[in-house]
Inverse folding.
């Protein structure tokens, strides 16, 4: 048999090239001596069926010591294949993918923030959060009536911000009303949070009656719903928030925050009396959250439509695993029917700026790869913190950096099905 | 895994409580198999028996099947740097834990010149970020055939293989793929990708070279059909790529596909129970400058680190995009069952003597390792007291009453710190400043309030140590 004949023989079986097998010269057949020659032949056998068998036989005819090379295994292996007539499938085996369907009995309470003149307030629009019947952005399980919103932090006195943040607020830091205007007009905030930190006895100890003037100014300056935060002082916050509730009568302001170790009842009562909403803040513990919610609802008689939870945001790298799982557990419990946890979730995403990776000029650790410019990594730290928790079920993000706000808004609108953008290009061709 | 109770496994064990597996009883061993903290082959008697006895062999096999993870495990690469992906059992980390962290691969287009290739590969192999006691790293390179030239692709693949890290070979052209596999198949690269158009050739390649293969389709019926077809003829090492679309409706569709794939696989459909690939590099097809693209790539990476991607391909090798993602991955894949604490007590940092400063921090692992590495990096010799705060950070421990003056006093007594130094100054974390007075009253030591972040301790010490006589705060 001549080489030409062998080629013809192979052609009959529609083979143009046998990989791993090179045929050279007149009668020499060289099989590349990888350690794994058998799999090649097996693969060939599957593909070529008879062809490979004939090749082996042809090789034998030509005097090539096939059996010796394959340790005698070739013949039975190939014959077995041939007997079974097993070849590579010519067509895809058609299979239908039937997506798993999840249905939850529970529903998150809807909470409306802000009130228009018709509703007894002075806001131009209101914002409703909650109403989920599925995990966030799982539209394939259930519709999600409201997408998460972003409120940007404003403080009632200048604060020592990281450089990347400071440059955006330097011009308005002395004027909370202007600051509030800026975050709405320039940075697209859905809401504004005014933190009355100057009331802290360890800072300026601003008297309550004076501090609430700032709230009135902000209500004048912007027409969106607002959040008002205290200083975190356990004694002063309840009377402060009580006064805030009074001066913002009927505005459905989110009062931040009631905690287990403050006079939560006083805050809840003020909210009831003046038609405000309470933020219930606990420290990374689902059971405490349940307890506090129950107190506010059952003992203080707060309406389920006036309660938002802050289960604590630990930032990326500094406990976000706890924050994420805590929120995810809370949300899943609520969807499964735990009515004590069926409330919208708020996240102090600004906490991301506490991470040294967000603000420090360079790594203090000698073995680290350089961290790169902080102007870029700071906002990204806030974005990734927020985004991660968005996937656990956050409804309200309290944020700081305008770039972080812009990116998170984009993601929310895309995952939320509000963006019609799309690109068709495949990354395989990216230069 | 199939097993729901340790009893199911216990039935198949020798029940002799010999302890050779490292656990006291067979039941305890079964419980550890159930939570995947032990492997069936740790039962030496059964393994030995299985070599001789068909019945024992079957039992071992049954146990292996009972404890096999819901999602197949696939290994990419060989040797020390081989990376395992998939092997997941749950949809939510609090239900158990996630196991094999998303593997990060970085794009190496074969159209780069050799210098650029070396630069990108070096960035991959050299990347390091210190975190909770160790350096986080990234896994490997995805060599992409852009040239369309089989020989060029093969040369670049060969060059990149020299770095010894796991690889993904990216080309839809079977000829180019074959050309590359001929030189690196023994390195066990993941090949990318078999599609509706080229699947027969890729099936041949996967069989012939025995390498893991990615199946790619936006249509989940097609993707499943590909998986079923490949599995039928003996390909087990499969990765599914439901195609990552970076924007708008496309991103939303990607989100749905990834979640549906994983959820359906965990719940009922073992035909799609394979690791999932997501390609944040898709962000680079959008319009915009490089920073915008890198940001968006990071966003896509973050979404799918949280939601089920087992392997990813990135383009940006900027440290500011890598860092948040390696940290997020570390956080999401941390075992929630393991407390992140270190032993309380006294640590020597460097070579402290009787005049060296004494500092205190908490036993929360993240806090401790951060402080320890900051001190070491800054070459500071000192004594570091580690207070048992139940594994929580300084700020929360102070607020929650776990970092207290009496706790500090007790720790100082136990560690006999007053015998180790001549001075009586204790440096406390800036975040514990409010405890200054209380600790002074309790211990009689002078308290110095250190910086809020231990990264600034060096500069602080230059200003404040040794303390000048008289009052300092």
């Amino acid at each position: 048999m001549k080489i030409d004949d062998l080629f013809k023989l192979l052609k009959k079986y529609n083979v143009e090239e046998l990989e791993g097998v090179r045929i050279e010269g007149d009668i020499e057949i060289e099989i590349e001596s990888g350690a794994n020659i058998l799999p090649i032949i097996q693969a060939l056998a599957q593909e070529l069926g008879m062809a490979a068998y004939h090749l082996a036989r042809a090789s034998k005819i030509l005097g090539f010591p096939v059996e010796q090379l394959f340790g005698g295994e070739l013949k039975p292996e190939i014959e077995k294949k041939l007997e079974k007539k097993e070849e590579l499938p010519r067509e895809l085996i058609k299979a239908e993918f039937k997506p798993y369907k999840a249905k939850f009995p529970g529903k998150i309470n809807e909470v409306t923030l802000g009130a228009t003149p018709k509703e007894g307030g002075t806001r131009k629009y209101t914002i409703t959060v909650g109403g989920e019947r599925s995990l966030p952005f799982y539209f394939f399980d259930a519709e999600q009536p409201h997408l998460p919103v972003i409120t940007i932090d404003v403080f009632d006195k200048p604060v020592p911000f990281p450089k990347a943040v400071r440059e955006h607020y330097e011009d308005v830091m002395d004027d909370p009303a202007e600051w509030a205007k800026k975050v709405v007009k320039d940075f697209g905030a859905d809401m504004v949070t005014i933190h009355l930190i100057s009331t802290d006895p360890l800072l300026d100890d601003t008297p309550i009656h004076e501090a609430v003037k700032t709230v009135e100014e902000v209500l004048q300056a912007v027409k969106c719903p607002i959040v008002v935060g205290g200083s975190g002082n356990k004694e002063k916050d309840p009377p402060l928030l009580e006064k805030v509730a009074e001066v913002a009568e009927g505005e459905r302001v989110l009062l931040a925050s009631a905690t287990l170790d403050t006079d939560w009842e006083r805050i809840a009562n003020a909210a009831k009396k003046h038609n405000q909403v309470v933020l219930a803040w606990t420290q990374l513990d689902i059971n405490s959250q349940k307890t506090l919610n129950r107190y506010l609802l059952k003992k203080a008689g707060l309406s389920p439509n006036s309660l938002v939870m802050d289960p604590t945001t630990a930032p990326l790298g500094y406990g976000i695993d706890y924050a994420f799982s805590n929120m995810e557990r809370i949300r899943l419990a609520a969807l499964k029917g735990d009515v004590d946890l069926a409330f919208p979730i708020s996240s102090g995403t600004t906490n991301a700026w506490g991470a040294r990776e967000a603000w420090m000029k360079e790594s203090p650790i000698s073995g680290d790869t350089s961290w790169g410019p902080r102007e870029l990594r700071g906002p990204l730290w806030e974005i990734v913190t927020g985004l991660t928790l968005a996937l656990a079920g956050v409804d309200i993000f309290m944020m700081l950096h305008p770039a972080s706000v812009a990116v998170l808004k984009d993601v929310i609108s895309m995952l939320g099905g509000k963006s019609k953008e799309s690109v068709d290009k495949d990354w395989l061709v990216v230069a | 895994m199939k097993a729901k109770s340790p009893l199911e496994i216990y039935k198949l064990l020798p029940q002799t409580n010999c302890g050779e597996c490292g656990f006291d009883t067979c039941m305890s061993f079964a419980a550890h198999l159930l939570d995947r903290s032990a492997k069936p082959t740790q039962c030496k008697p059964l393994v030995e028996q299985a070599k001789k006895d068909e019945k024992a062999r079957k039992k071992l096999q049954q146990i292996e099947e009972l404890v096999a993870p819901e999602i197949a495990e696939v290994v990419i690469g060989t040797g020390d740097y081989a990376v395992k992906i998939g092997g997941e059992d749950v949809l939510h980390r609090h239900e158990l834990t996630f196991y094999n962290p998303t593997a990060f691969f970085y794009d190496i287009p074969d159209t780069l010149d050799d210098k650029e290739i070396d630069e990108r590969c070096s960035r991959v192999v050299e990347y390091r970020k210190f975190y909770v006691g160790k350096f986080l790293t990234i896994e490997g390179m995805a060599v992409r055939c852009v040239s369309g030239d089989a020989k060029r692709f093969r040369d670049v693949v060969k060059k990149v293989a020299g770095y010894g890290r796991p690889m993904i070979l990216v080309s839809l052209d079977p000829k180019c793929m074959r050309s590359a596999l001929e030189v690196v198949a023994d390195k066990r690269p993941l090949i990318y990708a078999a599609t509706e158009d080229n699947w027969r050739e890729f099936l041949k390649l996967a069989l012939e070279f025995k390498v893991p293969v990615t199946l790619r389709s936006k249509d989940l019926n097609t993707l499943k059909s590909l998986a079923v077809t490949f599995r039928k003829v003996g390909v087990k090492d499969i990765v599914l790529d439901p195609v990552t679309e970076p924007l708008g409706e496309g991103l939303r569709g990607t989100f749905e596909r990834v979640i549906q794939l994983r959820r359906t696989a965990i719940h009922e459909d073992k035909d799609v129970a394979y690791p999932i690939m997501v390609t944040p590099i898709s962000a680079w097809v959008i319009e915009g400058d490089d920073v915008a693209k890198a940001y968006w790539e990071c966003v896509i990476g973050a979404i799918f680190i949280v939601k089920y991607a087992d392997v990813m391909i990135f383009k940006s090798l900027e440290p500011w995009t890598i860092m948040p993602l390696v940290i997020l991955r570390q956080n999401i894949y941390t075992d929630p069952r393991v407390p992140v604490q270190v032993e309380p007590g006294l640590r020597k940092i460097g070579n402290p003597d009787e005049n060296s400063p004494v500092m205190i921090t908490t036993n929360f692992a993240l806090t401790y390792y951060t402080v320890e590495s900051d001190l070491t990096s800054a070459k500071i010799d000192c004594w570091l007291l580690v207070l048992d705060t139940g594994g929580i950070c300084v700020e929360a421990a102070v607020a929650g009453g776990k970092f207290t003056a009496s706790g500090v006093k007790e720790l100082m007594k136990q560690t006999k710190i007053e015998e180790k130094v001549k001075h009586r100054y204790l440096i406390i974390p800036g975040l514990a400043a409010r405890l200054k007075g209380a600790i002074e009253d309790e211990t009689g030591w002078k308290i110095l309030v250190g910086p809020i972040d231990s990264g600034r301790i060096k500069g602080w010490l230059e200003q404040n140590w040794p303390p000048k006589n008289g009052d300092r705060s």
Remarks:
- Chain B has a mean pLDDT of 94.
- Chain B touches chain A through 101 residues (CB under 8 Å).
